[in-house]
Amino acid sequence: MRDIEITEPVEITLNGELVTAQNGELLIDACERNGSYIPRFCYHSRLTPVGMCRMCLVEVDTGRGPALQPSCMIPVSDGMGVDTESDGVAKAQDGVLEFLLANHPLDCPVCDKGGECPLQDQAYAYGPGESRFVEEKRHNEKPIPISELVLLDRERCILCDRCTRFADEVAGDPLIHFIHRGSHTEVNTFPGEPFASYFSGNTVQICPVGALTASPYRFKARPWDLEETESTCTRCSVGCRVVVESSRNKVLRLQGVDSDPVNWSWLCDKGRFGFQAGNSGNRLSRPLQRCESGELSEVGWNTALDSAASVISAAIAGRGPQSVAVLGGARLTNESAYSWAKLAKDVIGTDNVDCQLGDGLPAELVLGLPGASIDEVCEPGATVLYLGPDAKEELPILYLRLRHAADFDGVKIVEVGPTLTGLSPYAAESVTAVPGETPSVLAALLDGTSEHVEASALLRNASDLKVVIGRANLAEDEAITVQTADLIRESVPGATFLPALRRANVRGALEAGLAPGFLPGGATLAGTLPTGWQSMPAERGGGAAEILEDAANGRVDVLILLGSDPLRDFPDRSLARRALAGAKTVISIDPFVNASAEQADLVLAASMFSESAGTTTSLEGRVTALNQLVTPPGTARDDWMIAVDLADRLGADLGVETSADDLAEEMAGFSDAHVVLGDGAPVGDGVMLDISGRDLLTSAEVEVPPANAYSLRLVLNRTMYDKGTLLEESESSAGLAGESVVKLSAADAAPLGVDGSTQVKVTSEHGSVTVAATIDSRVPKGVAVMHHALGDVDAGTLLVHGDPVCDVRVEVS
Amino acid sequence: MGYLDGFKVTLRKWAGVNTDTGRRVTTEYPEEVRPKPARFHGRHVLNRYEDGMEKCIGCELCAGVCPADCIYVRGSDNDPENPTSPGERFGFTYEINYLRCIHCDLCVEACPTQAITESKLFEFAFTNRSDAIYTKAELLVGDDGRPRQMPWENWDGGFDPAQDTSGWMRATSSGGFAEFEGLVAWAGELGYGVRAPEGGQTSEQAGAEAAAADAAEDEHGGH
Ligand code: SF4
Ligand code: SF4
Ligand code: SF4
Ligand code: SF4
Ligand code: FES
């Protein structure tokens, strides 16, 4: 049942008492709201009711005498009489359960659902206790894998239609369905086609029996072993609320929480199963230092912190504070991000700090644009201009929300981007713009000169345009995104923006000041000194690209990688390589020895998700709690503790008396955006920061070279599963990353003679790679698509940061 | 003078004279051992089916019910080619901590497969904590169906592994309802086959007759 506001009250008689309900709402909800819980299996408040299981039968009287009716299918009307406790109802429930159990294997002792099973619970509460069926039960092969992550035991299935409705209605991947008839009816996939949905784990969560189980949790524990805490998923920036469950100090399962403004109880599989990285045997449990022989070897924290502090002091004393640079911070909690901002900008005094890796949006945009929340973007009847990356791949739950909005709430989505995306089937119109041309295509749409008449009319007539803005193409200069935003603000002054950021807490890190030119709370270096600070950097520093450029040119003495892995994540791969080689000392603070940390001089072991407490900020600016449930391995510690210890060794005090809460409080003390945090840790759906925007916006004008007839424009984007460290370290998702390919339109592929999986050579001005080519109908003519961080082929070597676009030639090799 | 009466009892018992309050019961343990009651609760064993498969399916019901919280079980997937137990799941880890066990036998009652039962062995004095935690390898009966003897266990005190391993389970099987007394409702055990009802229970025949009579009475609206 969802909380609703009663706008159209009607009176019904519920078990003899007059109660108020919302006109037209489902009887099952109205009864629950008024204190009579009706047992159910198939009804789920986020799915359309189907009346499959008949468990919710109640006696309804609409003037013609009481009759048994499924309460999940009956809308409430004025004067209705309902009896949920009569003998007739009890007999019906008894009978329905006897039938549901007629073929049920009663596997409870070996069934993962046993102990938290609605069928067990309801059989106990409403069932007959004994069955009159003595016949042999129906048998099926015990669990069959229907995808890499989900197993189906057809014997246990009660045919409630929840999983199949979810796949069809919510995920839009109708890959499982009922097959056969009568008592042979079963859920199954289409032959040879697995249930390869990014959202498959949700079916396990909503299955009211143990028919669907998830391989990562299978047989790992029983419900009574589990300890749990509410938290927020940190695998992308949507900020889905979750319950984390652990047993014996090990996280074993994540379940989605029905958060109305965010995830509606759904999670993507990357988020649901990503906790496994924390249990990986490759976790770093102690700091590592490069020893004489050149190997990284374990050292104690005192040694590690002393040597970190001494290289930092030496750098400050030598070429000055700006020779220290901090890259990363999106993995951190808000509190840790603030502690690092304070350490870098106040204690060390450098402004060469960036929490993004050239793959995000400039801080000026994120902090400056007038914001829109997810709910505002998905508001019934809204018009949305979608300019972000493929939401299905990068922001999966935002994708589900937008899908629902388009399918059920009349939201019109106009998508403008270099390729079609997972969202395109639900968009009112998808307009493709070759990389570099988004501003001109958009300008035409907004001034009515575009040939896409419908899209243009929608955008021009929108009274309250919502824009989702992000980087659909990492091979395109971010300045083009700035130019696009600028253009929209000029043509549609009332437009509000939802930044489609990717990493978990980028927004929180930006708000905490981990960006060049910024102080916590969106203040700039021109502003006043924050309370509790002694100083701030004298001059503005550089962002990720400048930092790496400086490092490559030997101008960075200490490069601190705060949970970042530029070798894998910075789009311009050769720059990242040169930078790591050129920085004098590299300090990595990370739970793993990732590709970049392998080249570091010092690796400090950091804690991870569910090992540290704090808050996180989602892409829309919602601050929710991150709670601790287990302890980090060995002596790994929270990022803010490392900051406090380093500050101490540099002769400063970050002002933490007892816990990270002190940092939140300090931030709330001077930052208007964070005032809401002053009242202690956020609970439930959290609190929204002030997202009305700030006077920070800049404009940009990018000269895009004209496309030449021999080349294709490169689009570099991401897929949900790639070779990122956290995915590789999660047992169940490690094998799910696809192979590297270059995707071409049929029109471009034909003259090259590409069919199926021809090997081709992709060459740009800066490099060349050999890779399989495939034809993809979502790729428009003139564009070649490659994915970031897949397989061994490094598309990042093709581009150079700062080029507006990247033109490539594709030849059959 | 009353307290002297008390001493009289002591003195007479000491002298070996039977009194009106009963026979002298003190025995010269450990030289002299008494037979143990039929449903004595001692050290556990994990049983196998007659074909050698383990009975435990790793369901953790025993661990869930244990009031002393001394059982640790974890399940795992059976290898379909070479299963440890029938079905999908087997007990991968199984430990009982005898520093905490109060020998209540609730675990035995909870077990859906009669995998865990208690033997009558009580003479297992360990000298360190890790010996006190019996692992699966120590609890599981051997290939002959007999319990394994740990170095610190004394089996000389009349412990008969052939007889003394599942009395309470047999007494309480099928929910412990009186009408099931004497009915065999348990699976065979490796090394023993299907065990007969024991101690205090009526024979299988008599039990069945009693149950049938009960059922007949039920039909006539009895009870
Ligand atoms: S689905 Fe529920 S009732 Fe069925 S075997 Fe599993 S736990 Fe038991
Ligand atoms: S598998 Fe589960 S969710 Fe799907 S129809 Fe069967 S019982 Fe319902
Ligand atoms: S006998 Fe009682 S205390 Fe001992 S393990 Fe079994 S349930 Fe626990
Ligand atoms: S001993 Fe019995 S109750 Fe305990 S885990 Fe094994 S099968 Fe389950
Ligand atoms: S809940 Fe109403 S029919 Fe299933």
Overall geometric form of chain B: elongated
Class by alpha and beta content of chain A: alpha/beta
Number of strands of chain A: 34
Helices and strands of chain B, in order, run as HEHEEHEHEHHH
Share of helix of chain B, binned: 10-25%
Reading off the top of the CATH hierarchy, the class of the domain at 301-360 and 505-602 and 633-680 in chain A is best stated as Alpha Beta
The helix tally of chain B amounts to 7
CATH topology of the domain at 301-360 and 505-602 and 633-680 in chain A: Rossmann fold
- Oligomer type: heterodimer
The average pLDDT value of chain A, as a whole number, equals: 94
Task: Please render the helix and strand layout as text.
The complex is a heterodimer of chains A (813) and B (223).
Chain A: E1 9-14, E2 17-22, H1 27-33, E3 57-61, E4 67-70, E5 81-83, H2 87-100, H3 118-126, E6 144-145, E7 150-152, H4 162-170, E8 176-179, E9 186-189, H5 201-206, E10 212-214, E11 227-232, E12 241-247, E13 250-256, H6 269-273, E14 288-290, E15 296-298, H7 301-318, E16 324-328, H8 334-348, E17 353-354, H9 363-368, H10 374-377, E18 383-387, H11 391-394, H12 396-408, E19 412-417, E20 429-432, H13 438-447, H14 453-461, E21 466-469, H15 478-491, E22 496-499, H16 506-511, H17 544-552, E23 558-562, H18 566-569, H19 573-582, E24 585-590, E25 602-605, E26 614-617, E27 622-626, H20 639-649, H21 661-670, E28 687-688, E29 712-717, H22 725-729, E30 741-744, H23 746-752, E31 758-763, E32 768-775, E33 783-787, E34 807-812
Parallel strand pairs in A: 1-5, 16-17, 16-23, 18-19, 18-21, 19-20, 21-22, 23-24, 24-25, 29-33, 30-32
Antiparallel strand pairs in A: 1-2, 3-4, 3-5, 6-7, 7-10, 8-9, 11-12, 12-13, 14-15, 14-25, 26-27, 27-28, 29-34, 30-33, 31-32, 31-34
Helix pairs in contact in A: 2-3, 7-20, 8-20, 8-21, 13-14, 13-15, 17-19
Chain B: H1 2-14, E1 44-46, H2 61-65, E2 71-77, E3 89-97, H3 106-110, E4 116-118, H4 129-132, E5 133-134, H5 136-139, H6 167-172, H7 204-219
Antiparallel strand pairs in B: 1-4, 2-3, 3-5
The structure holds iron/sulfur cluster (4 copies) and FE2/S2 (inorganic) cluster.
